[in-house]
Amino acid sequence: MDVPVLNMKGAQVGTLKIDEASLGGEVKPSLIKQAYVMYHANLRQGSARTRNRREVEGATRKLYKQKGTGNARHGDRKVNLMKGGGHAHSKKRVREDYRLAMPKKMKRKANRNALLAKLVDNEVRVIDAIAFATPKTKEMTGFLDAIKVDKTALMAVPATDMPTRLAARNIETIKTCRPDQLTAFEMLNHRYLVISKADLEAWLKGPSSQTGKDAKVNPLGAAPAAEVK
Fold first, then answer.
1. 177, 205: one domain
2. What is the reported pLDDT for 70?
3. How many structural domains is the chain composed of?
4. Contact assessment for residue 4 and residue 19, using Cβ atoms and an 8 Å cutoff
5. C-alpha separations of 221 from 99, 181, 197, 211 in Å
6. Is residue 223, in this structure, part of any structural domain at all?
7. Is the pTM of this model over 0.90?
8. Quick count: other Cβ atoms within 10 Å of Cβ 111?
9. Residues 43-46: contacts with CB within 8 Å, 24+ apart?
10. Segments forming the whole domain that contains residue 198
């Protein structure tokens, strides 16, 4: 697959050849969906809390005598039937209760396959070099118009590229992330992906490319083993 490489003015200055087989060969919706659901679920904070009958503040005295009043039998006011009472099934879950997991190699395959889906739909803008002299929102909007990005976009730029990040900060439809943080969830949440040629090549050849046994035998980007004294 030959992907056009554009400059900052939107003119094509070359092409980037990408092997479709390294991205899964064909789009696999079930794999991408499983990864999307996992990333989405893991964003939940799990911080919702409601009080049960024991935790509601109030007296525990009996409202009235058990028999002879003609009313229903009641104890204190903290039952869920009373206004201000506790919840019958109070929420007590934590963040870990919502977390999902996938094998590392499976996640990498899903992320690479999501990129393939974006490439097939012509929703990836590969730039020869993204460089802004000053962090101006006006320059960013002009750049997006030049490369024909008219919907939401995910810009993968290094953390050190502060001019680009600041220029995109005030645009609601643009989100920035580091190139090594590209996931199926972020790519599918935005219509376009904007990334430089060098960053895309590094991502394709980096740790995300290890989707087989070599991910354990010789992992890329792993910290060097401590020397035994």
1. yes
2. 95
3. 2
4. no
5. 25, 14, 20, 14
6. no
7. no
8. 22
9. 44/95, 44/98, 45/95, 46/93, 46/94, 46/95, 46/96, 46/97, 46/98
10. 2-41+102-216
Given a contact cutoff of 8 angstroms between Cβ atoms, the answer to whether 86 and 56 are in contact is: yes
Lowest mean pLDDT among 16-25, 138-147, 207-216: 207-216
- The β-bridge relationship of strands 2-6 and 12-17 is antiparallel
| Residue position matching structure tokens 């009080």 | 51
- At 149, the amino acid letter reads V
211 pLDDT more than 70:
yes
pLDDT for position 225: 59
The more confident residue out of 46 and 223 is 46
At residue 89, does pLDDT exceed 80?
A: yes
CA 66 vs CA 70, 74, 78, 79: distances in Å:
10, 7, 17, 16
CATH number at residue 26: 3.40.1370.10
Per-residue pLDDT tens for 130-178?
999 889 999 999 999 999 999 999 999 999 999 999 999 999 999 999 9
77, 59 in Cβ contact below 8 A? yes
**β-bridge partners, 168:** none
User: Which element (helix H / strand E) includes 154?
Assistant: strand 153-156
Within this chain, do residues 22 and 79 fall inside the same structural domain, yes or no? no
Token pair, residue 45, equals 């904070």
